Amino acid sequence: MPIQAFIFDLDGVLADTPMLHYHSWKRLAEDEGLIFSWDQHVAMQGLHRRESLDVFLGGRPVTETQAAEMMMRKNGYFLELLEQLSPTDCFPGTEAFIRAARAAGLKLALASSSQNAKQVLFKLGLTPLFDVIGDGNTVSRNKPAPDIFLWAAEQLRVKPAEALVFEDSEAGLRAALDGGFWVVGVHGKHGQGAHLELAALEGQTPLGIIEQLRAPQQN
Question: For the residues 75-88, what does the mean pLDDT come to?
Fold first, then answer.
């Protein structure tokens, strides 16, 4: 199994930043007199901002002008919360795992649907560890389309079958599988189909994960 690269989603994989999005959408819902549920929040995971708004609205019709204003307002709420983010908000073991992957000679990319991914990564102190960073502005079709992962692989100069994607959302899982990548589902919200499922990155080693993937192929 010639794994040469690791490609990471951001929100929910490297840090619990989905909670910042949840509270931002919740505040927007209060503005609009709407009810925003946790199930809606989960359904948004991995989606682009406009698609997330459709989930938020639950079929309520709005003009594109209204949609743009709502997305701008929600993003403003998110950026307010983002100011509080720091490297201590990374999931335990995240930075050590990424550093170990670099030390093992693996190429590293971030592939997120979030348009704020670069800012979030900077606040977490992880920017220098990645060779390539893709966000919600990088490709025209975001998850569940595989484009962001295919873009990352092309930038890293690896084939999809040579890259391992770490995802926590159903949209991200589908995108990675459709792109022909190996997939590790993290934190249990990714649905079915991952080649390997992990409760967390803490306590794992990059080469250990590759060995776990290789084992079923040898049976």
Answer: 94
Taking the C-alpha atoms of residue 26 and residue 20, their distance in angstroms, rounded to an integer, is 10
* Alpha carbons 13 and 25: distance in angstroms, whole number: 20
| Annotated catalytic residue within 9, 89, 147, 168 | 9
Does the active-site annotation cover 39? Answer: no
- Give yes or no for residue 59 having a pLDDT over 90: no
Which of residues 31, 63, 82 is at a domain's end?
82
Q: Given the residues 11, 89, 135, 168, select the one marked as catalytic.
A: 11
Over the stretch 151-186, which tens digit does the pLDDT of each residue have? 999 999 999 999 999 999 899 999 999 999 999 999
Q: Give the CA distances from residue 202 to residues 1, 64, 96, 151, 184, in Å, rounded to whole numbers and listed in that order.
A: 23, 42, 8, 28, 14
Domain that holds residue 68: 18-82
Q: Is 11 a catalytic residue?
A: yes
Q: Which of 82, 103, 126 is the last residue of a domain?
A: 82
Question: What pTM was estimated for this model as a whole?
Answer: 0.85
